[in-house]
């Protein structure tokens, strides 16, 4: 396991590489080319510049999060082949520059969804939270504005701003795309890119849908053990793997996360580890990483990663906003650094017990 932190680049992030370097045991960052639009080819030159900046700070680029997928690929339009060809070129360029891990998601229209980006906890910290009842009252085509208004002036991590301008059009375009169609389109994409991934040793790691159920009537296909199994079996190549996100899967208490991790041994290439508090169906707050602060058992989760011989990067995921920090929702320095340290501590304890 390699402990890493997500970094949004010097242009957008309030957190610096120098700060990340001082988190004990943190060896690398997970980052992307933040100005690249979905569907564009990433040049080797641009990838190299990004890598050199990170390496100059004494860290490595442990993976890309994300190379986003153009909507035409998700919808299955005839133009998808052009965008898949571009994606393949990007993967080749990443592989040639020695980057071997790409996280992506196949969620239509929105990436992760929350009803509140700064809900106050009793200790005065603020967290991201989700309440289906509140979401049901929002006009989906106004979701960007709602989230934006709530984000303290920071960009929404992971949300693709170019989608903002065409939100109504996007909902129209996804109208005929149900779960089966979306699944077929994912498999079409994966089959097309796998030979390149195998040739250059690039592992694709699909992110879980967040939350793990349909929101605004949009289809969800990477949200539980059965669906993940189906996707892995449809393209049975090691390079077709997972970003095992405990917070996304954990939004549905029916998902047994340690069991899911163990079941997909060999295909879990990247871990997002965080905790949340369940209040009932469709209602949860994010929490500190500490098990006792939320509903997930972080020891059991880290033990499962340990037992499968996890070699890839793990990163603490969304943190609370604490100590007066102002940063992108979920992505401040302080609570994620606490999370990394806590997860490293669990790992050390498991490792020592195992080697006794
Ligand atoms: C949220 C992140 C997601 C993730 C994408 C992967 O905080 O985990 O935005 O990066 O879904 O493409």
Automatic annotation (TrEMBL):
InterPro entries: Man_deHydtase, Xyl_isomerase-like_sf. GO terms for biological process: D-glucuronate catabolic process. Pfam families: UxuA (PF03786). Its cofactor is Fe(2+); Mn(2+). It catalyses: D-mannonate = 2-dehydro-3-deoxy-D-gluconate + H2O. Pathway: Carbohydrate metabolism; pentose and glucuronate interconversion. Keywords: Iron, Lyase, Manganese. GO terms for molecular function: ferrous iron binding; manganese ion binding; mannonate dehydratase activity. The keyword Lyase applies. Belongs to the mannonate dehydratase family. This is Mannonate dehydratase.
């Amino acid at each position: 396991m390699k402990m890493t932190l997500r970094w949004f680049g010097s242009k957008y992030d309030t957190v610096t590489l120098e700060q990340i370097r001082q988190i004990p045991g943190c060896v690398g960052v997970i980052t992307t080319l933040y100005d690249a639009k979905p569907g564009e080819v990433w040049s080797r030159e641009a990838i190299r510049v990004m890598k050199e900046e990170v390496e100059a700070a004494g860290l490595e680029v442990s993976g890309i999060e994300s190379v986003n997928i153009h909507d035409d690929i998700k919808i299955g339009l005839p133009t998808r082949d052009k965008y898949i060809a571009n994606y393949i070129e990007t993967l080749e360029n990443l592989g040639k520059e020695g980057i071997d891990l790409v996280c992506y998601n196949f969620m239509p229209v929105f990436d992760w969804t929350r009803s509140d980006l700064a809900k106050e906890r009793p200790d005065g910290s603020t967290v991201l939270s989700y309440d289906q009842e509140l979401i049901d009252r929002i006009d989906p085509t106004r979701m960007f504005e709602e989230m934006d208004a709530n984000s303290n002036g920071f960009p929404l991590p992971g949300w693709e701003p170019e989608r903002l301008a065409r939100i109504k059009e996007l909902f129209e375009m996804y109208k005929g795309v149900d779960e089966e169609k979306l699944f077929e389109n994912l498999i079409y994409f994966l089959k097309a890119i796998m030979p390149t991934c195998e040739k250059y040793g690039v592992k694709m790691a699909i992110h879980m849908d967040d939350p793990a159920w349909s929101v605004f009537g949009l289809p969800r296909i990477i949200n539980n053990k059965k669906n993940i199994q189906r996707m892995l079996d449809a393209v049975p190549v090691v390079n077709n793997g997972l970003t095992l996100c405990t917070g996304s899967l954990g939004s549905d208490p029916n998902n047994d996360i340690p069991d899911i991790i163990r079941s997909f041994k060999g295909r879990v290439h990247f871990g997002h580890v965080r905790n949340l508090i369940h209040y009932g169906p469709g209602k949860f707050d994010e929490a500190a990483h500490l098990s006792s602060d939320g509903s997930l058992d972080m020891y059991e989760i880290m033990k499962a990663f340990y037992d499968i011989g996890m070699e890839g990067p793990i990163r603490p995921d969304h943190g609370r906003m604490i100590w007066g920090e102002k940063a992108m929702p979920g992505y401040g320095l302080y609570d994620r650094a606490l999370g990394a340290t806590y997860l490293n501590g669990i790992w050390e304890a498991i490792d020592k017990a195992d080697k006794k």
